[in-house]
Amino acid sequence: MAATERVEARSTKRASTQKDSVAESVSIWFRLLSCHTLMMAELRRELENPRGKTSALAKVTLPRFDLLAALDHEDGQTLAALSRALLVTAGNVTGLVDRAERDGLVERRPDPSDRRVGHVWLTTRGRSLVRKLLPLHAGQIHELLGHLPIRERRALRRALGALRDHLPRTRA
């Protein structure tokens, strides 16, 4: 085989390998999306139509749960911070907070050093509700992932952590 033929063969093999690598990356992307979609649909169904749950826990939407959980994690956030944390627009977060405030789950308080800025705080009722929902939500997630052997779950967690660490961070 002539030198030029060997170079062409290596080049063709490299292009084929790169094409396979790109296809594999796209396949991983689609698997992540499909798993996310399936899991979110199940979590939403369980939250919004709970089986045998008391009326206090009935019909909590997933966006409302996310709002309450974000505030339970860090109470007193601004609307802008909540928008970034929940990955929704400012308009969406305003509507979520308006409805949660109307229902007595959160309250807005002005910033003492800048009256243009408001902070959102859980009320006693909101904190009580989210503290009841968090263990139920954790149980639902475990139902979805618990069938995987522990070694596979740990490997998946490590792989997803490595992916997350590799991705560029969005700028605030």
Automatic annotation (TrEMBL):
It comes from the Bacteria. GO terms for molecular function: DNA-binding transcription factor activity. InterPro entries: HTH_MarR-typ, MarR/SlyA-like, WH-like_DNA-bd_sf, WH_DNA-bd_sf. Residues 36-165 form the HTH marR-type domain. One of its GO terms (biological process) is response to stress. This is Transcriptional regulator, MarR family. It comes from Labilithrix luteola.
